[in-house]
Amino acid sequence: MHKQKRIFMWTAIAFAVISSLLILRLNVANAGAGESYDKIKTFAEVLTLIKKNYVDEVKDDKNLIYGAIRGMLNSLDPHSSFMSPEMFKEMQIDTKGEFGGLGIQIGIKDNMLTVIAPIEDTPAFKAGIKAGDKIIKISGESTKDMSLNDAVSKLRGLKGTSVTITIMREDLDKPQDYTITRDIIKIKSVKSKVLDKKIGYVKLLQFQEKTEEELATALESLDKEGINAIILDLRNNPGGLLNSAIDVSNQFLPSGKLVVYIKGRSEEKTEYNTTNHNKKYDYPMIVLVNEGSASASEIVAGALQDWQRAVILGTQTFGKGSVQTVIPLSDGSGLKR
């Protein structure tokens, strides 16, 4: 009887030890998740306190939640951002080449809202806005700590309405106000012509959904004109779709050439190579760049330079070394990271 009790006691102790080790292992494995959940608990407490005690009644949680998400992404880097359903729709319109606004591409550089490039033949271009201009105010409101999406939404608007932006640039003694009337911005992403001595000139304004198609048409037309060299002008091209950059490189490089690769937190790389489904043009080539050449423009220029396909000519480019992904969310909003 005593022997059975001892066996039972040791069995119970062994079970308790094994159970404790399993619980400890689970706690270690879930430590990171537990810390996140603790912070979410704090967030829920703050949300409840605001709804219960804030001087003005909060009838809709959406603005609070969206504001918190924006703050979270603003703490990461200048390019990660949250887009409301309205902003997400506008972004999709941008890539198709038509929207209402001033005609400037903007970004955050050195913690300041900066003009990447004015788009040719738009109100901003005609008003004299230049690549590299620092926008310090929009309609009198300081852009310090203003998110990129908030700035875009303030600059966009109906055709015929106006907005005043305050600009600072190196050759100005003091900030200068520009009052610009908004218009419907229709962007044809490719322009081309034949220069003297049968040199083909191709200007890429942006990398959009139809850029590959427009470029293929332009190059075919130039080829029929009997050109013997090509100038690819990427000056003041703020970038656009990554796939479009690959497609443009495809027109000038042989199949299987690496255009760009992406490496995130893990060491795993995603590579983008040319496939050369289209005709490849082998003319001697110069690529023009400047400080307004950003993102996809830098990818294309870099690939053509790396494979010794073209000579790069111009000034220092914008310097955006990240490839962004846009992720649709369940309520129609979007996450850009």
* Major β-sheet annotation: 5 strands, mixed
Strand content: 25-35%
Number of domains: 3
CATH superfamily of the largest domain: 2-enoyl-CoA Hydratase, Chain A, domain 1
What does this structure look like?
- The protein is α+β, with helices and mostly antiparallel strands.
- It folds into 3 domains: 2-51; 98-186, PDZ domain (Pdz3 Domain, Roll); 190-314, 2-enoyl-CoA Hydratase, Chain A, domain 1, CATH 3.90.226.10.
- The protein is built from 9 helices and 18 strands.
- It has helices at residues 2-29, 31-53, 62-74, 85-96, 123-127, 148-155, 211-224, 242-250, 296-306; strands at residues 81-83, 98-101, 104-109, 112-118, 134-138, 141-142, 162-168, 176-181, 183-186, 190-195, 199-204, 229-233, 258-263, 269-273, 285-289, 311-314, 326-328, 334-336.
- A 5-stranded mixed sheet has the order 10-11-12-15-16, covered by helices on one side. The protein has a 4-stranded antiparallel sheet with strand order 6-5-7-8.
- Strand 7 (162-168) and strand 8 (176-181) form a beta hairpin.
- Helix 1 packs across helix 2 (31-53) and helix 8 (242-250) runs parallel beside helix 9.
- It is globular, with a radius of gyration of 27 Å.
- Residues 1-29 have low confidence and may be disordered.
Short description:
This protein is an alpha+beta fold and 337 residues long. Helix content is 36%, strand content 26%. The protein is globular, with a radius of gyration of 27 Å.
